[in-house]
Task: inverse folding
């Protein structure tokens, strides 16, 4: 795979890692938050941990759209699917996410609700076209990467005059979450691996505030392992040199101003929400978007009387701390006992980008190794 | 007997009634294509001769969607799937039974295609379908065609292949490229269509197994990594034998297209289903011999040792990544579904 | 987050704003509405069936060269 | 392993994925209840020993609606149905395989009831389920539970029971009351409910058959009149053997309730399914002996000769009515459905 | 079964038959039309033929509601089920009736139309209640016996305000068909076994015209075999004595004026059609009913744009002659060759009351006996 | 035509205008809207789930007697 395989070269990785070992100050700790689940996934999948010095630690961030979606939003979607005769379309990633009391979209589907997994927002449009007599609701999630495709679908729906298509919008914004993490100061980190594909859309300039306000080094990093390691080295150098800049390692896909056509499309269809709840982070102001007045016809929250559900998080689940970078998954008492990918108690155990799932599926060998 | 309009006809409830329409369907479609001396006995049970010794039996329900996919269909798959389960005990498959659950409204022409493909697969494998049954369920209570097959086979003396025999030090062999079947199915699944040359690897592996057990009668384990893929199969063997495994990503063959499709859909080739591959655990000393025998067989040409069995109370499969890191290769959790994140 | 993979543009359909892209033998139709300028032969990042952005081949090459530089250079 | 919430849980797609959820379902429900030494082998195929000789194999798909009915459920039925087909060759059934096709959303508690009932039926019959498979289909693509079972058995020397052995002069025996199963099913079918004490006759007949072949090794034909009823079974035998039959309505046992339900719904008891009855064709000279052996067995207490085989190129079954007239008893045409005229 | 078994006594039957043999004039032919399929069915099922003298012959009449329904009406129902998203409910008897070009409701169901078999008109109402979002059409057939239950359902639908329930009415009337057969004179008969359950509703007085206008003996006969034989004897006596009366053998269930409550209910909901097509008999004036103006809301022919379909009958099928009593089924070249209960070419091969089906299923032993 | 069987009325529900009838151990609920007067113990003719008419026990008996008369009598 061009533009993939080159960035997965193990030999180069070891050489780059050696450079990190060389340059690192053995006297201090380096704690870098990988903001994105994509990075979490890559770190575990490729075993990047193993290549890093003992005193360099990756701290997980809230950048997994599945993990930060509050259970109440899923419950509201389930209620909708059960009370109205709608077809609920959603990305497969959401199907197993716990929605409180052991429920999930998967189980609602098993109980008989018409819930369909789609691969693209355009598939949801196709479902709406094929079922003109039924209401089709697209349960949309994602950061800025996934938001423009939703906007595109809404614009097409209006152009076609589709009367049975709406979107239950749960799109969230990266910079507010990052600012929140930094402003709370709990995470105790020395640098940030910045999002790769989100940055493709919003551009590297979007993180200027983070760096300047909180004096935090940030390197926008590709998702391939060499990208991660190179970006880690770049962060090590910023730390060592006392710099706090937005650097862009992922130059092959991220421009300073991002994808302006996609930004314009988002601006046309969406507007900021005054406040939105994030799982783990709580209510964050201006941290999400909603469908604007011009496109209100396509807003499921306006078409249907959707309840605002408050779901208590599971007792013992430390997802909030994991998502804030305060705790590691294996500090959770439920980890790998009550909470497994098969019966996830918190959202971080669901998505393969979730820190707990990645730790469980890929990372357990560490403890195993010590036992063997 | 009533006539069967195979060209334009649809499956009707009457075809499952047990009456004259059922008889017409069985005569005109099933026994016609699957024809063999034993099936021709025409009774509800079929008689065959056996010598004294050990036999094996295995069954599988086949419920694939779509019914026709690149490289096969539910007919050939239902033959291969059960032959392979029988072969994975080291046995020589003898006979198959087939039970069909048809959905009202299914096209008789498509059904005939499936039965012909089943007959061809069975003939090629030399394992006849000797008895069968057909039921019809109402439209909306089935999915076109389900086929359950059961296979029986005989096991030569001295062979003892079982999932609980893996021992620390054993070699782990995989017979070829993994993930072809699952990706071929995904490529033709509604709503996810993509173009690819990938074909299902669906094939009957008993010939390969026969060569293998002849060369190395002391093979410890054989298993076909179907649903759940190689990852799940290896974990099953670890659980049964109470061992762990250390495997090497670089030694596992995955086609570029399969890798590509997996990257696109957020899947992992280790969890993708195969229908013509096997995993084999054998004493390390026999591995080289087995590999050479396997590579001499058309269905084992890319056979390779991919790792070794280790003592591990946690029964973990740990993989050395191409990249140089290590990671746990866990059981499949939930379903393998395309991801966006 | 945001699984996206680079694929080569094989052909373009301006009417439907779609492209056929290829990823090592996997061909798939994707929407191009999020991009202004795409040409056959370009590599684009695919996410949920949409082309998100062009891969800049020069920058990609530079990154690869940088790996070599970085590992050789002193900090 | 992931936990199985049998009390409140529903079947999910993941239970058919082949991964950890599948393993949990199989361990926590299937192998737990069906437990036996052979099944415990835990491989995809199950090993057993045989002596030299003749064996039989038979398979049936079971798709009954409703799943639970007076006198049984799909679990016990799927055991009895296949044991009976094996027994109808005169053989002693040894082992069963079971393949399940579950519909997403089906209650695990009900599934457990079915598996428990299957286990009980299998234990009572002394015929263990030694291998199995489970698939899950999406909601709307199945009907709760389908079970395909395959049975194998061994045939003692000197026995040659087959549908093509009926000869002019042979006696036709039926083992008891006909129509109970079909009427029990109808009575609980949605939209047609009526109250009745009638229970399905679902039962394993191999014990009865063992007594019969011991007494009269030269039994010509045995068949269980399931779908299509006694009428269709007799016509099948006529077709296979190239003979006709003359039967006597007065000698065929039908319960008053079954007659009543048939009058109400415009059905004919001769076409109603049975799941614990057999029809037997034997040399006239052996009929009395057989009847006495059968009547000594709990499942053959009402056994009676109901007619005789005749030479008839048209292969017709002709019945002397209780009334004194004669009529052809034809194959079932279409489905047996309640009539209004 | 009380009131059933007593009337199926074989010994009594033989004694009664002996009486017929005694009283019959060996010099002449006695041709009695069993108007009803119920009688046809009983004659074959119990083998009554065998008990009768050679010179007494039963001639089949048009009294099977399935047999006389024109293929075009079934095709119209199939078209409706296929074009609109309706649930078509119907008695199982109709499912296999040929609708032209090998089609049938059974096959339309197999192709995917939502066609449901019901046992009672009240089941159709239940389907309508359970599916408030869909249109439920009850495809109703039958003579006067089956018409009052349809009327009852329509009245209940109006009382409940069911907005999704309509009836595709195909109810026909017995006396006009009987008069038509007699007036055409083709059938060449000496007496009629009159309907039993139709007469329960319309009463024995309804046949006065038939007897007086055409000087035709008529005995209303129960459906049990002794009823049939006794009625036959009564007809033999009328013939022998030159009488032409309406006699009532089925006195245990048929009153002179019939069931007046049921008649009133029919009159409330239905009105006569000016003309209706019968398979085999053609267009007969005032021979069927339709839903009247007061209940027009429940008339499927008014709610939906139902096409009037003309289906050519199958070449070679002599159903029309069979239904008029002119020909016997085995005079048809297709009988038992191209036309079987499995692949019926004409409607008379479908219903077990159809003369061809009865002859095929129960009657073939005669030809077989001669061969053996 | 018009399959109808006699069944005994076991109980009556005036509110729903239904009766529970029995036919040799088969019990079924039928509608009684077509009949004015039914009593428990009556035999009624059942057709498509409706009671069509009462069986008149005296006439039924008469018919049976008539069979005997007829077979004995001369024409
Ligand atoms: S292991 Fe499970 S319960 Fe614990 S923090 Fe992670 S998701 Fe929550
Ligand atoms: S046998 Fe068939 S084709 Fe001939 S008249 Fe009867 S129904 Fe018509
Ligand atoms: Mg198997
Ligand atoms: Mg298999
Ligand atoms: Mg297997
Ligand atoms: Mg069978
Ligand atoms: Mg379907
Ligand atoms: Mg069988
Ligand atoms: Mg059976
Ligand atoms: Mg059988
Ligand atoms: Mg299996
Ligand atoms: Mg269903």
Result:
């Amino acid at each position: 795979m061009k533009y993939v395989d080159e960035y997965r070269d193990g030999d180069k990785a070891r050489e780059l890692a050696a450079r990190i070992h060389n340059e690192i100050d053995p006297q201090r700790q380096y704690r870098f938050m990988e903001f994105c689940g994509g990075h979490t996934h890559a770190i575990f999948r490729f075993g990047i941990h193993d290549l890093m010095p003992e005193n360099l630690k990756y701290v997980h961030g809230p950048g997994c759209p599945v993990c930060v979606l509050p259970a109440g939003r899923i419950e509201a979607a389930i209620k909708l699917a059960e009370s109205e005769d709608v077809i609920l379309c959603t990305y497969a990633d959401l199907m197993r996410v716990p929605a409180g009391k052991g429920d999930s979209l998967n189980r609602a589907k098993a109980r008989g609700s018409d819930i369909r997994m789609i691969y693209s927002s355009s598939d949801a449009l196709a479902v709406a076209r094929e079922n003109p007599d039924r209401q089709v609701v697209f349960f949309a999630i994602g950061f800025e990467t996934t938001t423009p495709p939703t906007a595109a679908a809404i614009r097409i729906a209006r152009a076609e005059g589709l009367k049975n298509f709406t979107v239950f919008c749960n799109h969230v914004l990266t910079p507010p979450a990052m600012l929140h993490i930094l402003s709370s100061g709990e995470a105790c980190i020395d640098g940030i691996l910045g999002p790769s594909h989100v940055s493709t859309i919003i551009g590297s300039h979007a993180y200027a505030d983070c760096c300047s306000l909180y004096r935090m080094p940030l390197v926008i990093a590709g998702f391939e392992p060499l990208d991660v390691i190179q970006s880690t080295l770049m962060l090590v150098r910023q730390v060592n040199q006392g710099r706090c800049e937005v650097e862009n390692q992922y130059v092959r896909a991220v421009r300073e101003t991002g994808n302006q056509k996609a930004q314009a499309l988002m601006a046309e269809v969406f507007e900021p929400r005054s406040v939105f709840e994030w799982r783990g982070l709580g209510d964050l102001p201006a941290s999400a978007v909603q469908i604007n007045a011009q496109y209100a016809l396509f807003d499921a929250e306006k078409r249907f009387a959707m309840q605002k559900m408050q779901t208590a998080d599971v007792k013992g689940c430390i997802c909030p701390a994991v998502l804030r970078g305060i705790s590691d998954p294996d500090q959770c008492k439920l980890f790998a006992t009550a909470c497994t990918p098969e019966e996830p108690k918190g959202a971080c155990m669901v998505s393969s980008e979730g820190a707990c799932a990645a730790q469980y599926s890929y990372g357990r060998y560490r403890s195993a190794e010590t036992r063997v | 007997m009533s006539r069967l309009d195979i060209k334009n006809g649809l499956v009707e409830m009457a075809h499952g009634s047990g009456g004259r329409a059922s008889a017409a369907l069985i005569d005109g479609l099933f026994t016609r294509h699957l024809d063999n001396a034993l099936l021709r006995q025409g009774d509800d049970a079929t008689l065959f001769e056996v010598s004294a010794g050990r036999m094996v039996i295995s069954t599988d329900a086949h419920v694939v969607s779509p019914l026709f996919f690149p490289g096969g269909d539910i007919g050939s798959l239902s033959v291969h799937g059960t032959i392979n389960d029988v072969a994975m005990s080291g046995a020589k498959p003898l006979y198959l039974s087939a039970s069909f659950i048809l959905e009202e409204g299914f096209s008789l022409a498509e059904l005939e295609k499936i039965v012909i493909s089943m007959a061809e697969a069975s003939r090629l494998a030399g394992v006849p379908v000797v008895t069968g049954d057909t039921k019809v369920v109402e439209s909306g209570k089935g999915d076109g065609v389900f086929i359950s097959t059961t296979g029986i086979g005989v096991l030569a003396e001295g062979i003892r292949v079982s999932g609980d025999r893996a021992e620390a030090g054993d070699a782990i062999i995989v017979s070829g490229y993994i993930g072809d079947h699952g990706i071929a199915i995904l490529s033709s699944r509604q709503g996810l269509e993509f173009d690819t040359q990938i074909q299902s690897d669906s094939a009957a592996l008993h010939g390969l197994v026969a060569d293998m057990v002849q060369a190395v009668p002391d093979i410890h384990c054989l298993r076909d990594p179907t649903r759940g893929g190689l990852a799940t199969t290896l974990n099953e063997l670890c659980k049964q034998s109470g061992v762990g495994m250390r495997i090497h990503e670089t030694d596992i063959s995955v086609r570029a297209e399969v890798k590509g499709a997996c990257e696109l859909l957020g899947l992992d080739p280790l969890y993708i289903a195969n229908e013509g591959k096997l995993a084999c655990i054998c004493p390390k000393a026999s591995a080289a011999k087995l590999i050479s025998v396997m590579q001499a067989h058309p269905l084992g040409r890319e056979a390779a040792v991919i790792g070794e069995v280790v003592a591990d109370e946690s029964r973990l499969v740990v993989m050395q990544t191409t990249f140089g890191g290590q990671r746990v290769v866990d059981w499949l959790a939930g379903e393998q579904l395309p991801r966006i994140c | 987050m945001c699984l996206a993979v680079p694929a080569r543009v094989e052909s373009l359909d301006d009417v439907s704003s779609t492209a056929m892209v290829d990823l090592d033998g996997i061909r798939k139709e994707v929407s191009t509405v999020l991009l202004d300028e795409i040409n056959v032969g370009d590599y684009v990042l695919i996410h949920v069936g949409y082309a998100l952005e062009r891969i800049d081949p020069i920058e990609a090459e530079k990154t690869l060269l940088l790996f070599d530089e970085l590992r050789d250079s002193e900090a």
